[in-house]
Design a protein that fits this description.
Elements (H helix, E strand, L loop, with lengths): L4 H25 L12 E2 L5 E2 L3 E2 L2 H15 L5 H15 L10 E2 L5 E3 L4 H17 L5 H16 L17 E2 L1 H16 L4 H18 L10 E2 L16 H18 L2 H15 L3 E2 L4 E2 L2 E2 L5 E3 L2 E2 H18 L4 H14 L12 E2 L10 E2 L1 H20 L1
Antiparallel strand pairs: 1-2, 1-14, 3-4, 4-5, 6-7, 8-9, 10-11, 12-13
Helix pairs in contact: 1-2, 1-11, 1-12, 2-3, 2-4, 2-12, 4-5, 4-6, 6-7, 6-8, 8-9, 8-10, 9-10, 10-11, 10-12
Amino acid sequence: MTNTRADAERLRDDLKAWALDHAFPLWWEVGADHVKGGFFEKIAQDGTPVEAPRRARVQPRQIYSYAVAGLLGWAGPWKQALNHGLDFYLAKYRRPDGFMRTLVASDGAPLDDKVDLYDQAFGLFGLAMAARTLPERTDLPVLAAQLRDRLYADLKHPVAGFEESVPRSLPLLSNPHMHLFEASLAWIEVGGGEAGWRAMADEIAELALDKFIDPVSGGLREYYDGDWNPAPGVAGRVIEPGHQFEWAWLLLRWGKLAGRDDAVQAALRMIAIGDGPGVDPARGVAIFALLDDMNAHDDIARLWAQTERIKAGVLAAEVTGDPRWWATVAAGAEGLIKYFDTPVKGLWRDKLRADGTFVEEDAPASSFYHIVCAILELDRAISARS
């Protein structure tokens, strides 16, 4: 097992080369629908696109990914790809009331007009990165603020945070709030000096510290009743290692911004859970779910959890100055690279079984955002110290 910053730098080079040389070209040439617009949901392992209805959460992830392509220095048409995604997304998913619908057909015809909190969160996040890389698009900050304000008007929870949908559906979930937190921090970093983004970030951080994180185990739960108590039964005990890493990365950022050491300490504790009982030592990867007693609940290892391990380790190393966190980064990168052993370079596997074999399935576009976000964070940290 590699465990030094030098190992992390070498792995950064490998990951970045894979993205620039293979993944960005493939997901633009094959993964974009150059006839009807937008992006396909999946590419088959033989390198052909898979036709299917298109979820609202996937399009802004691809928008984000091609914005990152520009930041990472891809020589291909990243701006064309980004605008290709933006045009389809804003034309086909935006409802008259400003919310984003959940699902459209490949030609953009509405299939499900439901307002889902998770989908709104990714809309805000994708627009933030697009605004960062396309400063000429002055419409994007306006659209994002309008969508955020609709959330407060129609989905606000009476205690804190937001409802899942209108009308109310249970259980309430921490996961969409994580992505709203991510989006609000992204808008703050874009330079949107609007107080609304900081207010949203602060509220969600406080909700996580007060309600989501179990004071005994230090783990962050997934499912809640209507009053932000853990959901009854097994659901209320579920702790996902990948989300320990992802929330930790966000809380470390917010803790620095807000001067809150309690958030930093909570984040480091969550990383220790993800990196300890959350990792299967035989496979060297983070598994999908634990229970609150820290025993495995679902031992499938999803690709995205490995990317979040990288991000959390990078920021923990920076915030604490402790080089031991580079071991987490390197281990996450080593684990992630296993998923890239595919017949067509630039694709990936998504689910690694306990026996070390991958589930045979198409490569989901939804994973690209996780991958490129991890590469961007690792590249930023390595470049800053070079």
